[in-house]
What does this fold into?
Amino acid sequence: MGTKPQDHGKRAGLNRLLLRDIAVIYLLTFLVSVPFYFWKLHSDLTGLGVSALARIDQFVDQTANSLVPLVSQPKTCSPSEVAQLRETVFRSYRVKEIGLIRPKGEVFCTSNLGPTSIQIYAKTLSRWHQAADGRTLALVRAKTGRTHSLFVYLQGPHGMGANALIPPDVLNELVGKGFPFPELPFAVKVAGNALAGVVNAPLEAGEMDPDTLSFHSSQNPVELQFLVTPAFQRAYMLEQCWIPLVLGSLFSAIYAFISRRRVARQSLPATFEWALKNKELEVFFQPIMDTDLGGPLGFELLLRWHHPVHGIISPMIFIPLAEQLGKIGALTDFVIETAIGFIEKNPGLMKSRYLAINVSRQLLLDEHFAERVCRRCGRSQHLIRHLLLEVTEDLAFSDQEMDRAITQLHLLQQHGFRIAVDDFGTGYSGLDLLRRFPFDVVKIDKVFIKELLPEGNAVALLDSMIGLADGLGMVVIAEGVETAQQADSLLQRGVNHHQGFYYAKPMPQSVLLSWLATVGVAKPVVAMAAEA
Ligand code: C2E
Ligand code: CA
Ligand code: CA
It folds into this structure.
């Protein structure tokens, strides 16, 4: 079946709404990720800062340990002691020079110069004296003012001290090890003197912006600062934007999946499938009475829809909808299955009675319908003779369609089904239909019964319809009998098959069985349905 233009329009509208919602989801995900982004930035930098400081501390430990043998004894700067200093420099990692220091802060012997006399800065000396573990660090600017040296000082037990000179690039190396942000500016401050730079460039003396993230070593007078510049933030955000992108895509996919399912479930064709699956549809039975016998000779099966939201929906509303949406086949199959189940469950009651099933115009045009019903009932004449198929007279068919419908009706009749023309007298094609197909039963529409007043025109029409049916040898059923007067009037005209509220309203199976008991139906009725 082709799709209608309004379906395309509706789908385009839904897609637009979906796109709008997805855009909102992405936006929200990005907004929600902003605090997350700051939290992650902070936690990433904290991790890096703490581990960089740990590496610096470990390096200072190693260097100080290499000085321990030099300060364990008093020294005089003898050639052999100078040789010991040089050997220690040679063995120590990155140490350039070692000096021996007297308690007053005089470097009296170095690995490079041998005996010498250099006074260390008073500030460094006082810090060193205050250090509980006899260790300190100092960042010293060379006389030229450009280069810096890093010194590790260690105090020995007999007033002997030593220091090791290290190029400050070591700090750069230690901070930069495994550092994922080579462009992030940082500074290492040793006892208040700062060296700043980035991982891949040499450190230079400099002050950091006040807007920095700082970490302090607990063992050494070392502070590490990261400068979170806008440029770095942008680069970091770009690197991290895959997180909201992935989350946004995930949420959007879930949302699209759920809303597509919801739309699919809410779509009308799916609603019918849903109703069938969830047993929201029920078949009601309305007795067709034989007034001579005083009991039902059959029952018309009428669909009811117990909608969970809208309550009971009339078939006048949902049958045309089901026809439009191509779901009438499934609904009719359901009615046929209910009929077969009822016949098989109630063989005594159904012995000489029939069940009337409404067959919509759409199904008569479906060339597989007759074949499907015949296949379902198989060769079981037992089932077939208990079924009456009603087709409404008001079949607005083209000539071609009418031919197809008549072919289907013949097929069904040849198979043994009896066929009734429903709502007779309301359409335009009634007579034409009677001419073209030998119906077994005529159901005269309720409008004629309603207007069954002695002076009304309808009476003349009714009489002519009854005469026509008699002439063609068809059984007449009068629909919509609501009063005793209508029933009497019909009886006077020889119509004794009545259906209407006067006798009983359509009812569910459970009520039908108790209703049958009240009308005292015990024995099967010998009627037109059962020649068996
Ligand atoms: P219909 O085939 O003409 O069915 C008879 C309708 O008249 C039923 O309406 C029934 O409840 C109503 N009726 C019976 N006695 C009286 C009465 O004394 N007075 C009045 N005013 N009404 C009476 P219902 O059940 O609402 O069904 C309406 C229509 O829906 C049916 O008209 C039939 O065309 C269609 N329908 C119902 N079930 C099915 C089905 O399974 N398949 C198809 N294709 N159509 C169905
Ligand atoms: Ca009917
Ligand atoms: Ca009818």
Observations:
- The longest strand covers residues 295-307.
- Residues 9 and 15 are 10 Å apart (CA to CA).
